[in-house]
Each structure stands twice: as C-alpha cells, then as structure tokens.
Amino acid sequence: RKKSDTLGKNILKEINPQLIINTHSVNPFSGDFYEEFIQEIKRSDLAIITTANLESELLINNLITSFRIPTLFCWCSGKADYGEIFIHLPRDGACYECFLIRNEKGLVYNPKKTEKDPRWRIPGREPYNSPGIPGISIDIDFIGLFATRLALQVLMRDSKHFNKYYPELKVNYYYWDNREKKEDTIMSFGPFSLPIEREESCLTCSESGRRMVTPISKERNELNRLIREASRR
Q1: 192 near 174, Cβ under 8 Å?
Q2: Of the candidates 51, 62, 3, 61, which has an alpha carbon nearest to the alpha carbon of residue 27?
Q3: At 49, which helix (H) or strand (E)?
Q4: Residues in CB range of 38: below 8 A, 6 or more apart
Q5: What is the rounded CA–CA span in Å between residue 129 and residue 132?
Q6: How many CA atoms lie within 13 A of 205 on its CB side?
Q7: Residue pLDDT, tens place only, 16-38
Q8: pLDDT of residue 82
C-alpha cells in the first residue's frame, strides 16, 4: 500500500490532479479479507497483476475468470532484463493456468524457465533484492509503458474509433529477453509474441478439466462459495 500511496500522491497526481486513486492493504489469503478482495476484483474494468507470486496469481486467476475481468499478468526479473506479459480476455481467452499448463508441456517460450537459481519454486524467478543498477530505469520505463499500451488496447478493444489508430490485439502473450546469449549476438530484446490457446485440462476455466479432479481442496471450495455469494450481490 505504501508503494501505491507514493505512486498515487507523489507522481500520478502531479500529472493529472483530477485523478482519484484508492489504495488498499489486503491479504487475499486471510479469510478476514476474502470478501473485500473479491468485491474489489468484481467491480474492476481491468486487473493488472504484478505480484510475481504464483499463489496469488492463481488465486486472482480464479476470481477474474469467474467474474470475466480482462487481466494483464506482468512480471520481470529483479534486474528487469527479461520478463513477460500474459493477457486474459474473458469468455474465449486462455486463463493464466492454461498458460502455465502449456508452459510445462514445453509449448511456450518462457524466459523464466532457466536452470539457474534452483532455490525458487518457479525456475528463474529471482528475489527482488537487487541493488541500484545504472540504467535499469530504461528497462523499467519500457516495461511500464508497454503494459500501459496493452492495457489501453484491452480496455478499448471494442471501440471502432480507437482501433482506427491502434492495431488489433491479436496475441495474448508477450515476452522479452535481454540477457547475454551464448551465440554471437548480445541482445534479442523483442518484445516477442505468441498466441496462447485454452487448455481442456485447465482446472480453472475448463469444465472438462474441473471434472477430472476430485475432491476439490477445502480452500478452493471456500473460495468458490465466496465467489458465488459475491456474484449474487
């Protein structure tokens, strides 16, 4: 919340004084905050997820697919030299769990899947403890602008006027990788893009996938109950 307050009060308000920004400090894994968190997601026009944490990403993925909320899952390494943006579009689009399944099958190039740093459950995800790196703001600014551009395209995808000036959003996964390679080149920044299709075995957005797993965990049952209650409000 402190980061959001700083961004909202000290930066964005200077750019646009009319902007209203509400910040929240919520632990979505605490039963006391489930309903508040669910309501925040439910009334959103767009969700941008930057938690870089698999547990929270999967929890949010469950909510946004239930409420049909367009969502960007954004992540970059601690040094900002590689990362990804996955876009979920409601109804027909693949969800984040579909992306993870295809990643495990080797059907997706994923810059996180490296052999280094085996301490982390998701290969390649390093801790955000890097010291100040000269020039890193260039990469961070690019990533922020790129995510903003994609967010605008998602929000305005049904606007004929907007789409006269912006290309149609045709793929839902973007990645970049600016690390030094073994080959002669030292840069292949991209961003590159790939279409991610839905997975029939997905437990979140596929009826056939949900039927394959029994019993459903107590936590998922509780979350589904709260989602159903929120949907009726």
Answers
A1: yes
A2: 51
A3: strand 47-49
A4: 63, 226, 227, 230
A5: 9
A6: 27
A7: 777 766 666 667 766 677 777 88
A8: 76
How would residue 71 be classed by pLDDT, with cut points 50, 70 and 90? very high
Whole-structure pTM value? 0.73
**Residue 49 β-bridge partners:** 73
What phi and psi, each to the nearest 5 degrees, are found at residue 83? 175, -165
- Do residues 50 and 57 make contact, with C-beta atoms less than 8 angstroms apart? no
Confidence at 113, pLDDT banded by 50, 70, 90: very low
Per-residue pLDDT tens over the stretch 144-187: 888 888 998 998 888 888 877 777 788 899 888 766 655 545 45
**In sequence order, which residues have a C-beta less than 8 Å from that of residue 147 and are 6 or more positions away?**
48, 72, 74, 85
Domain ranges in the chain are 44-197
C-alpha dist (Å) from residue 11 to 14, 147, 148, 208: 5, 18, 16, 46
**Residue type (1 letter), 154:** V
- Residue linked to tokens 């909510």: 63
Q: How is residue 213 written in tokens?
A: 């797993």
Angstrom distance (rounded) from CA 122 to CA 112: 8
* Superfamily for domain range 44-197: NAD(P)-binding Rossmann-like Domain (3.40.50.720)
What does the H/E/C string look like for 116-165? CCCCCCCCCCCCCCCCCCCCHHHHHHHHHHHHHHHHHHHHCCCCHHHHCC
Q: Is the peptide bond before 191 cis (omega within 30 degrees of 0)?
A: yes
